[in-house]
Design a protein that fits this description.
146 residues, Rossmann fold, 5-stranded parallel β-sheet
Length: 146
């Protein structure tokens, strides 16, 4: 399983996942094993990597690859986990980054339609990404109608 961070585990720019996503990740870790869960974020900050090293040491960040929507991060996820790409679930709040990367890589996308946002913490970034997500949904609807 590959997880995006911003919008999926917490709001944009947060240093750590929200408490409810920590509970969920613990359940995922017990089902899949931490060695089969990866963070595939276009913003893998050192603070986030340190938090995971302390709280979920088996969950690794994928880095050193081209950013989503390129499928490189999912390819690396498959190599590190020993799992075929068709068995990898990419959980992302963006259709044209993580979900598109999953489709290109022949992995499975899981689209988070209601991502975590905090207009109080990062009003401009959250507004930008909210508009971007709306545009993506409209664009996908438009191209699938033809």
């Amino acid at each position: 399983m590959a997880l995006d961070f911003d919008g999926v585990l917490s709001h944009h720019g947060a240093p750590a996942p929200l408490p409810e996503t920590v509970v969920w990740m613990k359940r995922c870790e017990s089902v899949f094993g931490g060695g089969r869960i990866f963070i595939l974020s276009n913003k893998p900050t050192d603070v986030r990597k340190q938090w995971f090293a302390e709280h979920f040491p088996e969950i690794r960040f994928i880095s050193g690859v081209r950013k989503k929507p390129f499928p490189d991060g999912l390819t690396k996820t498959g190599e590190l986990s020993g799992v075929p790409l068709s068995h990898i679930l990419m959980v992302d709040d963006r259709l044209l980054t993580g979900c598109l990367a999953a489709l290109v890589a022949d992995a499975r996308p899981c689209y988070i339609r209601r991502p975590y946002v905090s207009y109080r913490h990062r009003p401009f970034a959250e507004m930008f990404f909210s508009i971007l997500r709306l545009f993506e949904r409209c664009y996908i609807k438009a191209i699938t109608l033809y």
